[in-house]
Each structure stands twice: as structure tokens, then as C-alpha cells.
Amino acid sequence: MLNTMAGKTQIKIKKKSEFMRTLKQMSYNKLAVFGAIVFAIELILVILAPLIAPYGYAEMDMAAAYQPPSWAHLCGTDDLGRDIFSRLLYGGRYSITMGIFSIGISVMLGIIIGSTAGYFGGKVDNIIMRFLDIIQSLPGMLLTIVISAVLGSGYINTILSLSVNGIPGQARMLRAQMMRVRGSEYIEAAESINCSKFRIIAKHLIPNSFSPLIVQATMGVANMIIMAAGLSFIGLGVQPPASEWGAMLSGSRQFIRSSPHMVFFPGLAIAITILALNLMGDGLRDALDPKLKR
Amino acid sequence: MLRYILKRILWMIPIVLGVAIIVFTLMSFCPGDPATIILGSTATESDLTAMREELGLNKTYIERLGTFLYDTFIRFDFGESWITRTSIKAAIIERLPRTMLLTIATLGLSTLIGISLGIMAAINQGNWKDNFCMAFALIGVSVPDFWLALLLILLFSVKLGWLPAMGIGGLQYYILPAMAGCMGGIAALARQTRSSMLDVIRADYITTARSKGVPEFRVITRHALKNAFIPIITIIGTHFGKMLGGAMVIETIFAIPGMGSYIVTAVNSRDYPVVQVGAVFLAIVFSICMLGVDLIYAAVDPRIRAQYGKKSRKVKVNA
User: Fold this and answer.
1) Which CATH number fits domain A75-289: 3.30.460.10, 1.10.3720.10, 1.10.357.140, 3.40.50.720?
2) Average pLDDT over residues A233-258
3) Does the distance separating the beta carbons of A260 and B267 come in below 8 Å?
4) Which of A158, A265, B3, B183 makes the best surface tag, with the fewest CB within 10 Å?
């Protein structure tokens, strides 16, 4: 009785320590902590946008159009007199969720495709990989543009077209990871006690292939946010008057000579978000790197 | 080696065909009736029917796909744009060189700056020069290229008036677009160069080279960099593809009439034939570049060359 209890607590401690170890390792990295804090602040600002934003995102005031930054309008106003700071807060809801959801979808589909290819190997692997080869020989942005032309513009459709673009990369990485762990003894053990293939993939292979996936997903969110903004910028993606950051940039392009602040702040918002995510991703990669384990 | 090159070139055929089929299929799922888009909503029903007949839209999907593949790859007839009614082939001949020039300028700039920064960071590991290079790289990956493009226009053409903001003309029209597009490449290359230089710089053969009195510059360029080059080439190759894709946004901003802006305009006006042929062309260019990367691997690294070399040589080495 005492023995089993001791065993249980030990297992518990070990499980906790793996997660805590990563966090602790990350906390040594000042830049990663800085990135995480910036991103957290940004998330809070964006979630609480209706409470924080001084104006509505579509609130027009033609008398106050084209104003440079001031205390009344922190980032100035645009051509219709809308407060750019408020619009940025609301726009962050589009940009950040688009990044997270699209990478989420592509990770899930990437796991399914990659683990199928990696576990079964042989012909299945060959067919899947050649198909991914074909998709990847289209430059990423081109594929996204074509798919979003087919699906049409809008929030959900943009997420879908972005996630298709991310699938090959995720699938490839998971496959490589699977190939590495497939020959391990614990997989052999699971096979020998007649575990189903699904169970082996879901319970043994995927959790053991997870850490590079998490790193790539964190960096992927940053990439997706840039691509989403780029899509809106060339007129696909989320359409104005929605205040998605890329759409705001695209709308203010023609006023670059007279009111440069209209171009400056939306881009700055994107750049800060991407920087924070990249710092976090770097820290996470170092923390999860077995070579750097202490 | 020759066998390998031949195999790689043959492998490009199914890839390009696959791309053509995928793009064609995607475009055929596009919502909306092309005949209505071309003639406008005021067209009569008989006009629409005649137009559909002319575009071959009343045939089945398989028939249209077959015609498309046959025309493009066997007859080299790329058809004409639905909107402007001009030959796509002529447009591509005119536009592709501009996109290639832009991509190569961007890639060249980012290779030059990226590798130099990476080397500087690696040989000064830990001090302020290293930190400066890595901070620069970090900011480089975080700045979206289209925003950087706007800021550069603001600085160099609006405020200082040194460079033209848009259009094409002499080489000076490509400076700002290349600067805007190169940041991502610089960042990735600087990081990769630094880490692979750090891997080799403590190797014994570097110490040997130094101790026998090889000048430091030669140690870095000939002994260290050459051995660190394989992963760097991979990054250059993948960035070629990214820049081809990124050219779509950059060309749109700077109003450069290249392949990128051609495709973006075509997507927005639902000009399917242009999108299809344009995508296939970019895929071909990209595949050729990836083939080039693989060949450069072999040229740079004798170990890889030996893998594809003759069997007898391998046996000799083993014996």
C-alpha cells in the first residue's frame, strides 16, 4: 500500500517536473521571458479591447481626420477620423487569432498526415511525401493566394487558406520525428502487447515527437500573422472596414506622403507581435533541446 | 553524377505536371461564372452561352484539364488573358525577367549581408559585435516586408528624394524593392551562418591551419566557411522560393510589372488562365533553383559528390 502510493507520487512529481523544467529552463533566458511578457500584455490588451479602447473601432469623426499622434489619439487618426490606437486593439483580435487558429489547424492536419507517413512508411510514405513535394514546389505565398481566391475573402476563409500552406512543413517535421522514435524499444513493447495502431500513434509516437512541433508552431504563429497581413494588404484576406492590421496598412498606403503615422503604427503592431513570438520560440527551442539539458 | 542530375531533371516533370493539375483544379472550383465576369452582368443569355462555348466551359472538367495540359506543355500555347485579351506568353516573356532580376538582387543582397553578419557574430562570439548581429537578425525576421517597403519609400523617396518610389526604369528602381525584400533572408542567413560556423570553428583542422601560419582571413573563408556551407546553401535555396512568393507583395507595392503583380491582378479580377500559367511558371523556376541547390551541394562538398560517384571508387576507399 505504502509502496504503491510512493510510486504514484513519484510518477506525479516526474510528470510535473518535465513541464516545470521546461518553464524553469525558459526563465533563465531573459529575452524569452521578455517576449512572453510582451505577448501576454498584448493578449490582455486585445482581449479587453472594448474596456481599454478609448473609441469604437468604426467610430468616425470627420472633423478629427488625419490627426498626428496626441494625448487624445495615442496613434493619431485615419482618413475617416477613426482612432488608430482603438482600431489596432480591435484589429489584434483578427490578426492574433488568425495566426493561432491557422497554425492550430495545420498542426492537427500535419500530425495526421505526418504520423501516417512516418508510422506506415513504404508506399504510403512515398505517395504522401511526393504529394507534399508537389505542394511545396509552389512558393508558399502563391499557394495561399490561389486558395484564398478560390475560397473568397473573409476571416474563416483566410484562416483555412493559411493553414493549407502550413501543413506540408508540419507534416514533414512530424514524419522525420516519427522515423526517429519508431525503432525505439517502447514502440516494440507496445506492439508486442497488441496495442492498436491508432493507440500507438496517438499515445506513444506523437507525445514523444512533440517538442519540436511546439517550437515550430510558436514560430509558425508569427509567420502566419505576417502572411495574413500580407494577404489583406494585397486585397485578399480580411476586408476593410474590419481593422485587421494588414488591411489597415493597405488602406492607409495612399496617405503615406501626408500622414505617415497611419502607415507606421499598424506595421509596428505587427512587428512587436512577431518579435515577441520569435523570442518565445527561440527560448522554447533552447529549453526543449536535449543537448542543453542540465 | 550525370545519372543523378538526369534523374533529378526527369523528376521535375511529374512535379510540374502535379502543380499544373492542382492549380487548374483549384481554379475550376472558383465561385462565379467566368462568362458573366468577362461580359459583365448586363450581358444577354445568348452572349453568355456563346462566351462559355468560346472558353470551353461547357466541356467536362477532364476535357478542360486535358486541353490545358496539352496546350501548355505540348504546344507551348499559353492562351490569352480573359480580361485584357492579350497573349499570356508575350506578357510572361516581358515580365519574367523583371521578377528574376528582383529576386536575384534581393537574394544577392541578403546573401552578402547575411553571411557577413553571421561570420562577424561567430568570430566575435559573446561580445557586443555578436549581440549586435543577432539583435539585427531578430529584428529582421520580425519586420514584415511590406511595412518595411512603405517605410523605405517614406525615407528614401518622400523625405530624401534619392530613389524612385515606384514603377520601372533603370536599375535604381530595383534598389528599394530589393532592400525591402532582403531582411528576412538576411536574418535567417546570419543565424544559420553563425551557428554552423560555431560548429566548425573549434574543429582540430582549424587549429592546425592556424598553427601552420595560414592567415586568419584565409582560415575563416577557406577552412571554416567552406565546411559550414551546406546548411547555409539550404537556407539560400528555401529563401529563393520565399522571395519568389514575396515578390507578389513587393511588386504590388512598388508597381513593378513583373510576374508577381501579374498574378495578383489576375487573382483579383478572376483571370484564371493567367493564374494557372503564372503559377506553373513560378513552380518551374523554383524547381530549377532547387535542382541548382542540390548540384551546388555536390560542387561544394566532396563527401556528397562521392556518394553519387562511381561505385568502383567507393569500393577502393573501403578497401
Assistant:
1) 1.10.3720.10
2) 83
3) no
4) B3
